[in-house]
Amino acid sequence: METLEALTPELFAEKSVEVLEALSKEVNLVKIPLISNWENFNQLRDMQLVRFRGLVQNMLDPEIYLESYQTKSDTDTLTMRKGKFRDNLKLEANEEVLFDSAENVHAERRPIFMVSIPGLNDWAVDIEKEQFIADSMDVEMNNLPSNGLKRPLDESQANENAGDQMETDSDNVQSKKLNRSASESEPKTSTNSNLSREYLLNSPIVDRPSNAIIAKFYDDTAKVSLNDALDVVGFVSLDANLCGSNRQLDEFENFDEICAMNPPPSLIPRLHVISYRALAHINPLLHDNRHNGDVLNDQTKLDCFRDIRTALTQCLFGDEIAADYLFCHLISTVYVRADETLGQFSLNITNFPSEKLTGYTKQLYDVIESILPASHYFPITIDNLNSTDFIPTKDYETGKLNSGLLQLAPHTHLVLDETQLEPGKLEAHGIEGVMYISNLIRKQQLNVNFKFYTIDYNANIPVLIFSEGKSMFPSNCHIPLKVDTDTISVINETFVALKQFLKPKLNVIRRFLTEMRLQDFDMGPESVKMIQDDFIEMRRSSNASADDLHMMLTLSRMLGIIQGKTTLETQTWNQAKMIENERRKRIDMLPKAKTST
């Protein structure tokens, strides 16, 4: 009996069916070290089996490698070896690769640049770090041969001691000898790359850097797209010789491009993928079997609903209707893409108290941050708009797709604080930024700039906007606050009390919000008839439009979900009509200064 801890690329090739069957079970998957937010890659063994959860930031060009290759020893013994799932060709002592052998098999693999989930909040990062300390990967695999299973701590060192290795170049499969020590290394270009650590890591949120890997996929990646969130399992490759700065360049090669495409493995490891899955959500609590005790039965769901609604009401100066809209926003997600995008629910909250409440919007965001797995607070200021890169842009000098703030994983909440905006000059870059944000909100699509053309990629980023009057950005819903004046003077104390109120309930609430987002919801034929009849009356009495109907459908769906329902009931539909009528009355009562930017 052997375990996944003992797995090697060669053994996986022999036992792939059994291994993949084991990895299909969550109870086994969570026992593999998760390195998404682990800082010390030097604690890993070369070719160790690890996991990485992250965002597809860039799809790199395919590379050719030797899937199998023939070697010859000094006694003229010919041997066929496997090159799959490795960056370096494995050789025994006194062996050489026969590159011209007719027995060699070339194949193609697809490198994909991935970053750990941008904007993952501290509580979620801590859980992912805990998952690095796995349960020894004690997943027993039946009938695994014992020969060759036990690796030395540093496999690359063992290979070097056995003899010279041969490294395959990712572009043309040209090889070069790797020497035993740096002191014996071949002459190489003395120029130092000017590329910074930040440039190589390429984090979408500059002040909240992510980890990164280059994941090498061997199976069909047709279903993988830019901005997808994936959970990948594979063999980590850490050989320092993979770093582009160690390459001996010819006169036609660009040193910065080589370094950008071949960053140091100590900073950006390679991961040879044997299994991957798309992530339906990014909440680590639902991936971690240590938290399975937080099962949400009907009573727990009801308690969560009440606790969240109470907390949001207190945060919003006692405004229950605004709390309902914010609650709906927190579980919103795109669930249909056809002629139009259905399910998105960007929310603009306005009409904050006229008193100067220093730090109020940031305190409100802190509450949101504590219950969501991933979010980012972005103050809308002239300087921020003028200086921030919002969309990915191709750098043809280095071949990298430089990321932007809006390149976020699905279900990452972007909070725009327009109350921070002061008069100033918006430059061309800032004007473009406003356009990119607006496009994301309207279409849930991210512009990607390839210099000569742009491509729109699907996104699923809920956007919440705080502003004094109606925002300069579009939104699906604008809700002016109706403030209980008695709550204004004690709002700071309220936030302090809320933290204590929520603290023992946080993990359950975090699970609840994610599970509600994933909840199926059926309108049903009776509900459709009710909606049709009501909409006819709404068109007759208030000239309701198709957009109004879309808003009502989205709102009633989310109101039903947060109350634990799976089908639309008359009571929920009537509640949606009631709060929508109240919201429209508030907008009608606002002075014109409050409804324009």
In short:
The protein is of the alpha+beta class and 597 residues long. The protein folds into two domains: 2-62 and 109-153 and 193-287, Nucleic acid-binding proteins (OB fold (Dihydrolipoamide Acetyltransferase, E2P)); 293-594, P-loop containing nucleotide triphosphate hydrolases (Rossmann fold, 3-Layer(aba) Sandwich). Strands 2-7-11-13-12 form a five-stranded mixed beta barrel. It has a five-stranded parallel sheet with strand order 17-20-23-16-24.
**Mean pLDDT metric:** 86
**CATH arch. level architecture of the largest domain:** 3-Layer(aba) Sandwich
Strand content: 15-25%
Structural class: alpha+beta
What name goes with the CATH superfamily of the largest domain? P-loop containing nucleotide triphosphate hydrolases
| CA-CA gap between termini | 69 Å
The domain tally reads 2
Shape: elongated
- List how many beta strands DSSP finds: 24
Keywords:
597 residues, OB fold (Dihydrolipoamide Acetyltransferase, E2P), 5-stranded mixed β-barrel, 5-stranded parallel β-sheet, 17 helices, 32% helix, elongated
